[in-house]
Amino acid sequence: MRLRATATDFIELFNLKDLVAIGGYLKDTKCRYFVLGGGSNVLLPEIYNGLVIHNSLNGVDKIAEDEDYVIVEAMAGEIWDEFVSYTLANDWFGLENLSLIPGSVGAAPIQNIGAYGAEVGDFIEYVKIFDIVDQSFKQLKPQDCNFSYRNSVFKVKHNYIVIAVGFKLLKKANLNIKYADIAQYIKNTTEATALDLRNCIIKIRQAKLPDPKFIGNVGSFFHNPIITRQDVLFLKQRYEDLPVYDIDDKFVKISAGWLIDKLGLKGYQKNSISVYEKQALVFINNGESTQTEVLTFAKFIQDMVKSTYNIDLTIEPIIVSKD
Ligand code: NAP
């Protein structure tokens, strides 16, 4: 979000030996800490009283393969989209729908990153962590990671430091083109390749989303609300054109961006924060904003949505508190 933010202490992590030393220090001093990846999904306070550990563990390795699958391990500090590009260059498929998501490999399981009908959790074979509590290295199976919609065990277990992720990828592409934006470009999965799909997603994202390298933003600012079928019937009476996506027998998903857009808030600005004019689910920082200003702006949008639709919007990025 390009917020003005300073930490009292900062360390860059390059190897596992140093991680053991840092782990010992954190346990002994009980010092506050958090692990920073690419910084693309966090809302940082003006002053962070504690240690920021920037994960720069690098490397990618093929671990195993059979006729159908390959297991590839990437260290947490690898840049996510470079890793996706590398897998496709090697004809390892599955991650193409997650192209151009900013951030690092280590952050991917934390948020269970997802886009265009794919979630990273579906391709994870294991996650290697260092546990600060018992000072040991562990390998978690997907079922230990509690992956759900943009969520995982790592959002609650702050003592787990992700060091590497093992992915189970396909050797034969199985293209997922169910989202309308993609289906517009790719009509036929027998002719298109996974690289075509990646290139199409890159184009769509570049047209719709601000590049965090140049414009401060954290991607989607709110989760898409999951509501009951009963509640959606009520909303549909007033908003016939509300898009609704099935979850299961009881619940449906609606688009938070649509709700905000319908309120006429695209482009709405207060101080240096505004709702991005091409995508209402994204806030952009046009100047020197602080976390407090962003959260005040978010509260205004949440209140508008609540009073109009009776829907609670939950903030998606991680809010790092001062103390
Ligand atoms: P979009 O295509 O305008 O659709 C709006 C919302 O409706 C999406 O958030 C999506 O939910 C849902 N949706 C659309 N088609 C769907 C379908 N066929 N089945 C189920 N749900 C459907 O969305 P967008 O803003 O351009 O984003 C495209 C994709 O990239 C989405 O998957 C979005 O989540 C992802 N993305 C994520 C971030 C982030 O920061 N987390 C930022 C930008 C984009 P889902 O969000 O559940 O897919």
Short overview:
With 323 residues, the protein is of the alpha+beta class. It is built from eight helices and 18 strands.
Tell me what the structure shows.
Helix content is 26%, strand content 26%. The chain has eight helices and 18 strands. It has helices at 16-29, 80-89, 108-111, 180-183, 194-208, 229-238, 256-262, 291-309, and strands spanning 6-13, 33-36, 42-43, 47-55, 60-65, 69-75, 114-115, 118-119, 124-131, 136-140, 160-170, 226-228, 244-246, 251-254, 269-270, 273-275, 283-285, 318-319. A five-stranded antiparallel β-sheet has the order 5-6-11-9-10. The longest helix is centred in the C-terminal third of the chain and has 19 residues, at 291-309. Bound molecules: NADP nicotinamide-adenine-dinucleotide phosphate (NAP). NADP nicotinamide-adenine-dinucleotide phosphate (NAP) binds at residues 114-117, 178-181, 208-209, 219-220, 224, 245, 253, 255, 257, 279, 281. Residues 114-117, 178-181, 208-209, 219-220, 224, 245, 253, 255, 257, 279, 281 line the site of NADP nicotinamide-adenine-dinucleotide phosphate.
Helical segment tally?
A: 8
| Helix share bin | 25-40%
What is the makeup of the main sheet?
5 strands, antiparallel
State mean pLDDT (0 to 100 scale): 95
H and E order = EHEEEEEHHEEEEEHHEHEEHEEEHE
Structural class, please?
alpha+beta
